[in-house]
Amino acid sequence: DTAVSQTPKYLVTQMGNDKSIKCEQNLGHDTMYWYKQDSKKFLKIMFSYNNKELIINETVPNRFSPKSPDKAHLNLHINSLELGDSAVYFCASSHGTGGGRAEKLFFGSGTQLSVL
Amino acid sequence: AQRVTQPEKLLSVFKGAPVELKCNYSYSGSPELFWYVQYSRQRLQLLLRHISRESIKGFTADLNKGETSFHLKKPFAQEEDSAMYYCALSGDNDMRFGAGTRLTVKP
User: Fold this and answer.
1) What is the pLDDT of residue A4?
2) What is the 3-state secondary structure of A58-92?
3) Is residue A98 classed as helix, strand or coil in its secondary structure?
4) Which CA distances in Å does A32 have to A46, A51, A54, B94, B106?
5) Which end of chain A is more exposed for a tag (fewer CB within 10 A), N or C?
6) Angle ∠(A54,B30,B94) on CA atoms, nearest 5
7) Which pLDDT score, from 0 to 100, does residue A90 have?
8) B80 three-state secondary structure
9) Residue among A39, A46, A44 at smallest CA distance from A87
10) To the nearest whole number, what is the mean pLDDT of chain A?
11) CB neighbours of A60 closer than 8 A, spacing ≥ 6?
12) Residue A111 pLDDT greater than 70, yes or no
């Protein structure tokens, strides 16, 4: 069983569209994250959720909105896609109290987003 | 604020040569540091963490608080070690990653 699964694996879309990436973890972890990996492989945190509550919201455009229906899911919705949004988006999860340290992260396989 | 710096974007060594991937950090609290690896077409995965003081696939890393470093070392590199390596610091509610170092081990 895949511990952290995200769909779709590849997403090709036109500029201006709205799209969502889904993430689910079956590890019973409390904290989930979204990371963006750009073309230079730089990995940057976007959001962190602990027990369905937003803990971190880095300086990402308002077009990006995370949604966590329960602690096993953290979806990423992107409005009005732009060329610069093209990247690989990784979901991850970990044990963590939200007020303390993140422990080992388990990553999804990534979603390659290409905006044309 | 926490920050992780990996000064080398690319590192190339020959098989059997020693390899060291550098990582420096900045954090006001007591740091908890990790190395993650991403092999070609695979997901990011934990390689090792400083708390465990373990050796994984021949790699070791020692936390040096005086130099604020957590360099990753292996005495004899193998071709299968070719990958992206990320140093990470667990701090205030999240895990921050360095920019990554692409290691290429040539035959």
Assistant:
1) 95
2) CCCCCCEEEECCCCCECEEEECCCCHHHCEEEEEE
3) coil
4) 11, 9, 10, 10, 37
5) N
6) 20
7) 95
8) helix
9) A39
10) 88
11) A36, A46, A47
12) yes
Q: Which residue has the tokens 């879309």?
A: A13
State how far residue A53 is from chain B, nearest Cα, in angstroms: 12
Residue A1 has pLDDT above 70, yes or no: no
DSSP-derived 3-state class of residue B41: coil
Give percent of chain B above pLDDT 70.
98
Q: Quote the minimal CA–CA distance from B32 to chain A in Å.
A: 8
Q: In the predicted model, what is the mean pLDDT of residues A56-79? A: 89
Chain segment B83-97, per-residue pLDDT in tens: 999 999 987 667 889
A positions 35-94 inside 8 Å of B (CB):
35, 40-45, 48, 50, 55-56, 90, 92, 94
Query: What are A34's two structure tokens?
Result: 């979204």
